[in-house]
Design goal:
With 494 residues, this protein is α+β, with helices and mostly antiparallel strands. The protein has helices at residues 11-20, 59-78, 94-109, 120-126, 148-161, 203-208, 279-292, 337-354, 380-387, 405-411, 421-428, 441-452, 474-490, and strands at 2-7, 27-30, 47-48, 82-84, 87-91, 115-119, 136-140, 144-146, 165-167, 172-177, 181-185, 188-197, 217-229, 238-241, 251-254, 259-263, 267-268, 301-312, 318-321, 327-331, 396-398, 403-404. The chain folds into three domains: 1-82 and 145-216 and 313-371, FAD/NAD(P)-binding domain; 83-144 and 219-312, D-Amino Acid Oxidase, Chain A, domain 2 (2-Layer Sandwich), CATH 3.30.9.10; 380-458. Helix content is 32%, strand content 22%. β15 (251-254) and β16 form a beta hairpin.
Length: 494
């Protein structure tokens, strides 16, 4: 019998698990995928929003501002990768200025302290590569960027270290309601006094299992284009355009690790499993992003991806005890859910205490977690020497990202199963470089096979080998770049 069972191991579920692990409780966390962070948490913008966009008076507005303030402390404790770089909402005309002024006033109501409206010269000083036609911007200094899947992994590792029991590859198929709950998940049945439903795009289906669904989830796809590491230096802040009815719109940003990234769009998804991207959507993202920063080079694209946001029909976060006692829905957590996650975890903890869960602080709670990724700047000679080592902790497994064998073994030793090359990639960046794993994937497979006692061919890239089907490759972007150059040369372009 568990005190609390959390369904879903994305950033929301793992943040709740870590917060509850501070107390003397028996906690289970169930995840349908083979690893944590496999839904929206691994495929989003990674932006820590300032708190000016969500309408005043909503949960989104309240929890975004609170969550933003907690990120510096979280980074100090968990070392997942976060920096404050500021954000701009850029405008091109008087209509945009009116929108920016409304955002400014809304942000002030939400308690955001570091907002200012700046003119063309100030924008240019912050962003030398910005479109010359930008006339004004809303600047928020407290916005930042993080690595969303690394945050989720860090939260999960720390929760597991503090006693949370994690069940992976366990999709919940049914829930029985009695004095407590019996949760049936693949080959496991778990009993719990309280359930936290943090199942993302599947949260309405989980709620339906106990008759506690007064909402519906509309999966909305966002597609992204990622450029090579180092190219993120083209911009200094997160650059938004004025929002539309679909959301915050196409952004241009550097990721935490220095890749340039553009996107996302917002399209209603045909399926809750759809991870594909479409060429016409990618063209639209490129054209819109060029309105902010015209000069990015498509030959530097290394990959594209998509994620599904769990948008609720009520448009706000749903965080409440349902009509079924002790069953708490944490649903409809779309943007700014990543930013809000620390505050959501605290809110859920307060709800649990208010409905009868006894919270006794755990004296042996450990708040800190060691980083996995160790930054290196090896010169070519030393890199080659370490790449050529036959084995050992100093051997470089991934040449592009300079990932060592020691880092991979460290990632495998933290209480969460790591048995695919993608699981290694999310934890260490092995395979995220320019060659996208062509060099290191066989080496990662061999290392995993050695440690797991199997053959390299038994190690998959990911549990679902169809997950990247339907995505255009690098050739698509090279051809677009070629067409752009031909258009300019012929005099039909700028």
């Amino acid at each position: 019998m568990y005190d609390v069972c959390i369904i879903g191991a994305g950033v929301i579920g793992t943040a709740i698990a870590r917060e509850l692990s501070k107390y003397d409780l028996r906690i289970a966390m169930i995840e349908r995928a083979e690893d944590v962070s496999q839904g929206a948490s691994k495929a989003n913008s990674g932006i820590v929003h300032g708190g000016y966009a969500a309408a005043h008076g909503t949960l989104k507005a309240e929890l975004c501002a609170e969550g933003n303030e907690r990120y510096t402390e979280l980074q100090d404790e968990l070392h997942f990768g976060f920096r404050r770089c500021g954000s701009l909402v850029v405008g091109f005309d008087d209509t945009d200025l009116e929108s920016i002024e409304k955002l400014f006033e809304n942000g002030k109501k939400n308690g955001v302290k570091d907002l200012e409206i700046i003119g063309q010269n100030a924008v240019r000083n912050l962003e030398p590569n910005i479109n010359d036609e930008v006339t004004c911007a809303l600047y928020c200094a407290s916005a930042g960027v993080t690595s969303p899947y690394e945050l989720t992994i860090a939260l999960a590792e720390n929760a597991v270290e503090n006693g949370v029991e994690l069940y992976l590859n366990r999709p919940v198929t049914s829930i029985d309601v009695g004095d407590g709950f019996s949760i049936h998940a693949a080959d496991k049945t778990l009993s719990a006094a309280f359930i936290i439903n943090a199942a993302g795009v599947h949260s309405d289906r989980i709620a339906e299992m106990v008759g506690a669904c007064n909402f519906s989830i509309i999966p909305r796809k966002g597609e992204y284009i990622l450029f090579q590491r180092g190219y993120g230096s083209l911009v200094n802040t997160v650059i938004f355009q004025t929002p539309t009815e679909k959301g915050k719109g196409i952004l241009v940003t550097s990721t935490y690790h220095g890749n340039l990234m553009i996107g996302p769009n917002a399209e209603e998804a045909q399926s809750r499993e759809d991870a594909g991207t479409a060429e016409d959507h990618l063209r639209e993202i490129i054209a819109t992003a060029r309105k902010s920063v015209p000069s990015f080079d498509l030959t530097k694209v290394i990959t594209n991806f998509s994620g599904l946001r769990a948008t609720a029909n009520g448009k706000d976060f749903i965080i409440e005890e349902s009509t079924v006692k002790r069953f708490i829905n944490v649903a409809g957590i779309d943007s700014p859910g990543l930013t809000s996650s620390p505050a959501i975890a605290r809110r859920v903890t307060e709800i649990l205490e208010s409905i009868g869960l006894s919270l006794r602080p755990k004296p042996q709670y450990r708040a800190r977690r060691r980083p996995i990724i160790v930054e290196k700047s090896l010169d070519a000679k030393e890199l080659k020497r370490r790449v050529d080592l036959p084995s050992g902790p100093d051997r470089i497994v991934c040449r592009c990202e300079q990932v060592s064998e020691a880092e991979i073994l460290d990632a495998m030793s933290r209480g969460i199963s790591v048995d695919t090359t993608d699981a290694v990639k999310r934890r260490t960046r092995a395979g995220m470089g320019l060659c996208q794993g062509q060099f290191c994937r066989p080496r990662v497979r061999a290392l995993l096979a050695r440690e797991l006692g199997c053959e390299p061919e038994e190690i998959p890239v990911r549990a679902d080998e169809t997950a990247t089907e339907g995505r255009p490759g690098k050739k698509f972007f090279r051809n677009l770049a070629k067409k752009e150059k031909e258009t300019v040369r012929s005099g039909n372009g700028d």
